Structure to design on (261 residues):
């Protein structure tokens, strides 16, 4: 079978540098023996190293041509290739409800959605690593005060420790993307309870960064009409200035002083 043709609508850019693929596979060295789900394996450049490392591996691939290529070239994956859209599958049933790691050279066009889905299953995913568009990778790993610090940063860092590992240049892909890529690793932290209403926390974070140029006093005014609360120093700050723990405290303040519906 010939090489798989990259499809623009699926955001496919096939990695050609084997040393980069090996380094990405190595991010799961501490999780050998735990099931692993690879997203978007394409022609298996990363898959081959995950197989060699002895992982209990399943792969999920939407592109039919890639599925056929994997079936032909990787007999070890028999019964382990899921021909489906990652965003639509039930992860809770994937490994009989047990824990598993997620890895991949992720399609750039749905990478943020992938991360939000991982977050929805955080109690079953102790580690998520792989390659993203560098801008997204930097955003996930950004610290408070950074221009790239935003919704993804706060929501993921509440539950995961984030490491930005290395940058990957454009020329090691076929076809080359127009942007650089970045490899990151998310490791589940020890937080089991944020200490606030989790749903409200998400709303506060998303509302704050939805108007990131405004102070919190202006962007969150619709959530509390208590003027004394709105005069607190934290409401004079902008969202990128707040750490995760400060967003937790802010959520608790708002919950105690919410606008009555």
């Amino acid at each position: 079978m010939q090489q798989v043709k990259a499809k623009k609508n699926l955001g496919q850019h096939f990695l050609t540098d084997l040393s980069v693929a090996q380094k990405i596979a190595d991010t799961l060295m501490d999780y050998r023996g735990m099931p692993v789900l690879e997203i978007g394996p394409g022609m298996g450049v990363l898959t081959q190293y995950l197989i060699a490392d002895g992982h209990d591996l399943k792969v999920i691939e939407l592109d039919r041509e890639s599925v056929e290529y994997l079936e032909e070239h990787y007999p070890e994956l028999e019964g382990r290739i899921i021909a489906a859209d990652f965003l639509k599958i039930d992860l809770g049933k994937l490994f009989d409800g047990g824990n598993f790691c997620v890895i991949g050279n992720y399609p750039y066009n749905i990478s943020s959605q992938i991360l939000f889905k991982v977050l929805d299953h955080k109690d079953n995913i102790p580690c998520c690593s792989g390659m993203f568009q560098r801008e997204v990778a930097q955003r996930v790993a950004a610290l408070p005060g950074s221009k790239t610090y935003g919704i993804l940063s706060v929501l993921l860092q509440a539950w995961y420790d984030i490491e930005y590992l290395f940058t990957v240049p454009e020329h090691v892909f076929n076809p080359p993307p127009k942007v650089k890529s970045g490899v990151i690793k998310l490791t589940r932290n020890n937080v089991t309870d944020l200490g606030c209403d989790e749903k409200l926390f998400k709303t506060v974070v998303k509302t704050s960064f939805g108007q990131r140029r405004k102070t919190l006093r202006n962007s969150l005014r619709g959530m509390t009409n208590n003027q004394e609360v709105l005069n607190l120093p934290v409401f004079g700050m902008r969202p990128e200035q707040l750490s995760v723990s400060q967003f937790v405290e802010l959520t608790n303040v708002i919950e105690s002083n919410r606008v009555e519906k």
Q: What stands out?
A: The CA atoms of residues 154 and 244 lie 6 Å apart. The two ends are 62 Å apart (CA to CA). DSSP finds ten helices and nine strands in the chain.
